[in-house]
Amino acid sequence: MLRTAVTNIARATAVRSVANVSRPMAMGSRFYSAGHEDESFESFTARYVKFFDNVEDLFELQRGLNNAFAYDLVPATSVIESALKASRRVNDFATGVRVFEGLKDKVENDKQYNEYLVELEPIRKELGLLTKEELAL
Question: Name one Pfam family in it (predicted).
Answer without folding.
Answer: COX5A
